[in-house]
Amino acid sequence: MDGLGDGWSSAAVAGDRIFITGMEKKREFLFALNVQDDRKWTTEYGRAYGRSFPGAHPSIANGRLYLSHGEYLLACDIEAD
After folding, report:
1. What is the rounded CA–CA span in Å between residue 39 and residue 55?
2. How many CA atoms lie within 13 A of 25 on its CB side?
3. Is the distance from CB of 27 to CB of 20 less than 8 angstroms?
4. Measuring CA to CA, how many Å separate 54 from each of 38, 48, 77?
5. Which has more pLDDT, 29 or 2?
6. Domain limits of the chain?
7. Cβ pair 74, 67 in contact under 8 A
8. pTM for this prediction
9. What's the chain's average pLDDT?
């Protein structure tokens, strides 16, 4: 899909939502899509990780979205579905 930037993130799926990360201009973004490939929202969460792996990976647990990154862990206080 175009417009998600560069990256090697795995996707997390909850209901009809797909969460994935990407990098544009040395900034990292988290994208929420639906199964029809419509972007629901995008949020910037920091600068690009400057070393080789690990990159950022979204996860779903107990209906919440979490984002692990090579430098930190973010817990999003939103319902994932």
Report:
1. 22
2. 2
3. no
4. 27, 11, 23
5. 29
6. 12-79
7. yes
8. 0.78
9. 79
The tens digit of pLDDT for each residue in 48-69 reads 766 665 667 888 888 888 888 7
Query: If 0-12 CB within 10 Å is exposed, 13-18 middle and 19+ buried, where does residue 48 land?
Result: middle
User: Peptide bond before 54: cis, by omega within 30 degrees of 0?
Assistant: yes
Residue 39's identity, in one-letter code, is R
Residue 3 phi/psi, 5° resolution? 85, 10
Q: Which tokens go with 2?
A: 């175009």
The amino acid at 55 = G
- CA dist 28 → 7, 18, 49, 61, 72 (Å): 9, 17, 8, 22, 13
DSSP 6: B
Q: What is the largest CA-CA distance in the chain?
A: 33
Residue 36: pLDDT band by 50, 70, 90 thresholds? confident
The answer to whether 30 and 45 are in contact (CB under 8 A) is yes
